[in-house]
Write a structure and sequence with these properties.
The protein is an alpha/beta fold and 189 residues long. Helix content is 57%, strand content 12%. The longest helix has 25 residues, at 60-84.
């Protein structure tokens, strides 16, 4: 696997000139894969949720409770816009970010979007018992994630690259993202 990743990375060196924006539902592996992908590409990794919390001065859960989802989405849009204005990085976004039409347009104009797709059972395995998912606190997590999948997967499908995440080592998903980037960028000169 390490040799495969090194070969893929060598094929991408100097070719990634836009921010690689990871989209998908909570638990898909955006942050985990994003950190590893950034290291392979020689780019910085940024988690949009962490940046939002730094800007807001509180956790996303607290922000949701105090100001609601609409206010959160507005702030998230601004944070992602600011991050897209900077040098290319690997950017993990929150599950609802790409669903926002203005954010999606901005990502399409200035970044390369990668949907990390996962099935319901994997998402449940990765999110159950974690206290920082405000949307999952509103009822049965399986039902909520199923509803989110139904609403969001058609929108995530607009991403430039689609990669499946599975219950295996994160490097396997990193390799699929890198192969997807190579295909998307086309042959080298």
């Amino acid at each position: 696997m390490a040799e495969d990743l090194a070969l893929l990375a060598s094929q991408l060196m100097g070719r990634v000139d836009r921010t690689v924006v990871l989209v998908g539902l909570m638990g898909a592996g955006k942050s985990c894969v994003g950190r590893r992908l950034a290291a392979r590409l020689g780019l910085s990794f940024i988690d949009a949720d962490v940046e939002f919390e730094a800007a807001a001065g509180c956790s996303i859960s607290d922000y949701f409770a105090r100001f609601g989802e609409a206010s959160f989405r507005d702030g998230e849009r601004k944070v992602i816009g600011r991050l897209l204005d900077g040098a290319p990085v690997v950017l993990a976004t929150g599950g609802g970010a790409f669903v926002d039409p203005a954010t999606r347009v901005r990502i399409k104009a200035t970044g390369t979007s990668v949907w990390i797709r996962a099935d319901l059972d994997l998402l449940l395995k990765r999110t159950v018992g974690r206290d920082h998912r405000p949307l999952l606190k509103q009822g049965d997590p399986r039902e909520i994630l199923g509803r989110l999948m139904e609403a969001r997967y058609p929108i995530y499908a607009e991403a430039d690259i689609i990669v499946d995440s599975s219950d295996e080592a994160p490097e396997a998903t990193v390799a699929r993202v890198m192969a997807g980037l190579i295909d998307y960028l086309g042959p080298t000169a």
